Amino acid sequence: MSADVLVRRPVRGATALRGGRAWRPTPYQAAGFLFFLVMTLAYWAVPLCCDAGQHAAVVERLKADLLHPRHPMADLPGAGSAYYSPYAVAEGVFARLTGLGGWEVVRLAGPLNLLVLLTGLNRFVRVLTPRPWAPVLALGAMTLLWGTERAWWSGYLGLMSMTGNLGYPSTFAIGLTFWAWALTGARARDGRRVRYVGPSGLRGLPGYGALGVLYGLILLVHPITSVAAVLGAVALVAGWQGGWRGPVVGRWALA
Description:
The structure is a single chain. By secondary structure, this protein is mainly α. It has one domain. About 60% of the residues lie in helices and about 0% in strands.
């Protein structure tokens, strides 16, 4: 007695582990990559001016003396200057290692800040809704609702303004704010009990402490942005955190 035996041919190639399904970018990955490419080229093409000179001067001062820089806008001691933040120190270290000038470092900081901003926006919107097109709409709203006027000041993220202020610390701080809100919202919204983390089933303290460090970094990089960051965090926790009791309050106080 014989029977036909069906033999399944093995799937080979990069899609074998995913059941033969090819990887496809999400709408935001496609739109975000295109936006990143076009905006970076536009930022590099438009001549820098206005506040960019101050940020370039900060880099030059730190390049000359990393531990005791002079004031960026006068021949005075730089102690107490708000411009010397961890962000500026990192730029100064990069300038010393590469030999680049302040203008070049500010130019190169633009794509990095834009990457932090775009990824943070995507992460935050995905906490609010799983709809795949929501981050694309959020990116359009963030850049287009400012109008067509160009304002190269800190904190302005209009489409035209971003051609001149991507290299500012405020852009980096806003990107970190989106990341902080995403992590805060996900932690406040997650009502699941975590096994093996304390007798109350709450998440461990290091995660909340890391959030506190992130908000502290935003404060040091751009104090004005940190005000909005804290207000947003309070709104997220107040709206989503349930089961308020002593251990929960203590964890958020740590953050």
